[in-house]
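Exercise 7b. Backbone tokens:
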């Protein structure tokens, strides 16, 4: 019998597998995707949000625990477990040497990401390189890996893990870590979560999936139906406004439209609907998918002029370009008169002070609803640009309730040998909202905890701690 079974193939699963193996346990990892698509949503990540009390190689300045906590508190609106959140924050200050031991490399942030130079450590080669490094390390240490093995059921005995099933295959283990992701690629579940709006629309029908197509939530649904304690709102997710022309799955980071704070965003009626300058983009980019999802037709349009060019990470696909605002409205198929009226009203309301996109500057609007709090400058310098936006779901927040040992709970009681990490429990920390890099912080912290705790259970059961092969 295997000691520790890890179900999943992304960052959290790999951290769990490596920690359990380091502790001497034999480990089998089951990844639902084929080898070429391994890694789940982790392959699309770029960085890790890190607490640090002083400069550390690629991290400048300091980012202390309390500031990190306040940033998380603000974006979640208080819908978070402070004890578990602070556990993640503290763990983020200690994990990088361990990551580097397993082949992960870091680099200074590129231009276009300088707002997070102090708070986030960027992976050399991005998430795909991180995933590949972990898989190489796992294979070298004797972790067994099975691809194309989606788990559809768990055998339980009074909350205790017995075995996992993948079709006709059955996998027994002394302990198990669940890290199989959320349900973002399950369209029917998204429909159930979002329901039908007052316009008779099913918003989820217009969602694009930024992440992996393999996260259908089969294991999450099974566990909830089996009596595991759930946490989180199924409609809450990491939901970003992305290019409306992005692919249905796996568009990743390159589909994001990052010029929102430099202009205005309109709905299909050519009306503004939210403050584009509320806060720095890394703290607000993940609210815009949900905002667009609440608009008619689940579509929005980011409008900028020539003054914004060069100040944001350019999108993969060029936007619509026009020499006049009426021409841009026609190209975007928006009502021309309302479009021009909305932009004109915004321009007239701008009170331009000292523009500084690296600070919460004093460029704002007056007597305009919704306001634009920072970086408000008239959109009056041709050419003008427009980008159509759709909601892009990265991962969902509905998950399993845990404690600080990453244990799955049944009726409030923690399981002896069943643990969970990553997206399947992120809702304990992320009730809503997001800030750049915190998903990787949660996955890394709880993946490592789950792996270590699973190995500890094995040692208690067998009295043996095998050395790594």
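Sequence design result:
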């Amino acid at each position: 019998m295997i000691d520790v079974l890890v179900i999943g193939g992304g960052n959290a699963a790999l951290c769990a597998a490596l920690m359990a193996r380091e502790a001497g346990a034999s480990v089998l990892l089951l990844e639902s995707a084929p080898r070429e698509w391994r890694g789940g949503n982790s392959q699309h990540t770029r960085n890790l949000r890190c607490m640090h009390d002083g400069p550390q190689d690629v991290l400048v300045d300091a980012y202390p625990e309390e500031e990190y906590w306040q940033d998380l508190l603000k974006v979640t609106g208080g819908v978070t477990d402070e004890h578990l959140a602070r556990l993640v924050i503290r763990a983020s200050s200690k994990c990088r040497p361990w990551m580097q031991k397993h082949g992960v490399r870091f680099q200074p942030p590129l231009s276009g990401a300088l707002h997070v130079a102090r708070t986030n450590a960027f992976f050399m080669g991005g998430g795909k390189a991180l995933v590949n490094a972990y898989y190489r390390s796992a294979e070298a240490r004797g972790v067994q890996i099975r691809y194309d093995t989606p788990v559809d059921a768990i055998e339980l005995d009074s909350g205790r893990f017995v075995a996992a099933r993948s079709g006709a295959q059955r996998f027994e283990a002394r302990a198990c870590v669940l890290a199989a992701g959320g349900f973002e690629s399950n369209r029917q579940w998204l429909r159930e979560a979002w329901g039908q709006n007052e316009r008779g629309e099913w918003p989820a029908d217009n969602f694009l999936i930024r992440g992996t197509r393999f996260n259908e939530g089969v294991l999450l649904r099974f566990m909830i139906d089996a009596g595991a304690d759930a946490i989180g709102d199924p409609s809450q997710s990491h939901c970003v406004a992305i290019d409306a022309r992005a692919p249905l799955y796996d568009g990743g980071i390159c589909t994001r439209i990052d010029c929102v704070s430099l202009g205005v965003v309109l709905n299909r009626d050519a009306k503004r609907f939210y403050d584009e300058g509320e806060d720095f983009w890394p703290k607000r980019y993940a609210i815009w998918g949900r905002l667009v999802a609440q608009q008619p037709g689940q579509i929005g349009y980011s409008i900028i002029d020539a003054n914004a060019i060069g100040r944001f990470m350019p999108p993969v696909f060029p936007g619509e370009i026009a020499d006049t605002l009426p021409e841009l409205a026609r190209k975007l198929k928006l009502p021309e008169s309302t479009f021009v009226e909305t932009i004109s009203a915004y321009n007239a309301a701008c009170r331009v002070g000292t523009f500084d996109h690296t600070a919460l500057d004093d460029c704002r609007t007056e007597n305009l609803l919704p306001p634009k709090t920072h970086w408000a400058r008239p959109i009056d310098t041709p050419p003008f640009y427009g980008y159509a936006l759709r909601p892009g779901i990265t991962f969902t927040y509905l998950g399993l309730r845990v404690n600080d040992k990453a244990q799955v709970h049944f009726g409030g009681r923690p399981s002896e040998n069943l643990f969970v990490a990553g997206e399947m429990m992120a809702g304990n920390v992320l009730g809503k909202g997001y800030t750049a890099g915190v998903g990787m912080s949660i996955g890394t912290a709880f993946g490592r905890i789950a792996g270590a705790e699973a190995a500890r259970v094995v040692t208690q059961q067998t009295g043996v701690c095998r050395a790594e092969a």
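Instructor comment: The CA atoms of residues 80 and 430 lie 6 Å apart. The two ends are 17 Å apart (CA to CA).
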